[in-house]
Amino acid sequence: MSQSKSSEKFDGSFNAIFLNMTAYNEAVKIYIVVVISFLVVFTYNSFDLVYNHWELIEDATTEDEWYLTFNEQSENLQESRVLQDGEMQTFTFYIDDINVPEGYLIGEINITVDDTGNDGIIANTDPTNECDSILADVREGGLTAQWTDENNTLSGQTNDCEPFFMYLRVYPDYDGLSRSSNSVNEFQALLPWQQSGWGYGELEIDVEVNTDDSIFPGQSSDDEEITITIEVIMFEISASEVI
Amino acid sequence: MAEVELLPIATMIHLILGLMTIILVFRSEKSNDNERFAALILGWILLILGINYLFSTIIDYQMNNDLMATGQYGSSFLRFGAKSTWIIFSGLLIVLSLTYPYPLIQNSKIVTLGCIVTILITLIFIPTGIVTNFEYDSISSLFLLFPFLIWLGVYLRYLHSEIIDDRKEDRTISAVAALLVFAAFGDWLTYWLGIITTQDNHFFARFAVGGSEYSDPNAINLVMGSVLPACVAVSIISIFIGEVWRCRKKGISGVSIFTFSLFVLGILWFIFDYTQMGIVDSCVETQCESFNKVYDTYFIFTSQIIRFLLVPLIFMYLILNFNLIETGGENVWFTRVLVLLMLLIVTSSIIELIQTVLPIPQMITSALFAAAVVVFIGWEERITSGMIRQSSSVAKTLLDSGEVVDFSISRSEYKAYNISVGVSVTLALMISLLISLMGINS
Lengths: 243, 442
Hints:
The structure holds two protein chains of two kinds. Chain A is an alpha+beta fold. In chain A, 23% of the residues lie in helices and 36% in strands. Chain A has a five-stranded antiparallel β-sheet with strand order 6-3-9-1-7. The two termini of chain A are 67 Å apart. In chain A, 26% of the residues are buried. Chain B has a domain at 141-291. Chain B has 19 helices and no strands. In chain B, α1 runs parallel beside α14 (293-321), α6 packs parallel to α11 and α15 packs antiparallel against α16 (362-378). Chains A and B meet through α1 and α2 of A and α6, α9, α10, α11 and α13 of B.
């Protein structure tokens, strides 16, 4: 091993300090290797960061516009019952029983209450026939849905022998209309539309019938057949970047 | 989260040890002046880290209790204060590396230079940092090039003189240089393999995306940010190779064992990190996911303990064991209080940490702590003398071998340095407070 240690008296000058620090040639050589190693590690790490990560970071921190479209499928549930005059019954639909396709979520429920089954046709063609009064209320709770949404129609009635409709929004803000969203990536654009847990449970609808006597003998009845049809709208979301 | 529990303890440890060290420096009239100056810098480093951790503790408390919204944090005094104190800490490391263990400026001008460096860094980098919303804060990691280049140079120089010329006393200098590298780079050292293999760049990308709520990421900051990791990786590998060589020639030492432990931890952490890469990339590719809880525990028991407990212990070990301050005479009782306080705080925090992982009843941990207190009090003298056994002084070794000149620093110069760092910290906090009140970055 070579050594080039200065034999001069140490005076604390920069030159003396430099000579002292570089007294061992091997140490200096290794130090140079260390500095070069640092430069190499720094360079390839910087290169990796700029070429392999920077674009991803930019994408992940810059919001783009995404166009969201809903593919819909629906499934119907139906139940008919005969109700006596003044009677109230609860129709229960088990939404969990619906076969929701993979990737789909329940968005909304359309409810149709129909009493035209036994006297509607007669009533519509015969002005002398009186229509029964039907009242329906969707019971809150039981199903995970947007019960306080202002677009909901949770009660209805008819006495003109026409079916009436009710509506319950199940998934937050779902209306089936395409829309745009500002998000950093497709995943986050889709994220608000991938919440599970909505549309579980049972939907209960209270129905009450009040029959009206016809002024013509033989045409009045004390009961009414009520048919409730539940149309469960399911959706699958897809996003495409607006360029 | 245990990090949150460790932070207040770390704050207390750093503040108390820093303050007591500064007081001891002024009571150590007989110490070598250069070493006394190094102790003063170390005292300020501890104190400033304590202030930094105090800010982090308050930030964590406010965030965890929903007392501060994300938007408020971005322009808060706490954020500016934490970032500013970190800049001053980096600046102090420059001065320390020029002073200790081998003084590169061997006259009292080092104090003037120290004052100028600290004040300039405060006046230039802190306001610039705040006004630019710390979007280029990685530039302060360039300061760490000084300790990296100087301490590694000193380490290699004195490792060679010890082994080649069989100068056993030179081990003191290389050991101190290695320990200073470990203390300066702290918990980063456990990620050396991740840095070498570029695996840690996935983490930097995650942090850049995660921190984009407060400041926009930019490529310059990202590149500058890789200066510190590169220093860390090269440092640990160089010291590891050096210690292996030394072990073969001279046998194993405490510093060697510590180096090997950090080296092995780096390999383990590479594997731990590899298992979490999906989660790490989630921030960039989809949405940030949380790390595995066991992984978090490993992080607390290695990196966090190194950063919050081991680093102040290394600094105190250097101050007490290498005679930077007078530990005898009238300072004995002061030193004993310092050592016992340090041991008790560290013991209590380790017991508390264990309690967060193992379901040990509080009665048992309290009993363990009480037992530790009894041991510390009973063997107080032995423990203290063990900690301050005055093995050797770097200055004495260098003076004996004629590699430094003996220069003196007057009491007024120490005071001037104290005032300049104190003014810098006050200025930094005032600038942070005033700009945060103006709400410039909100």
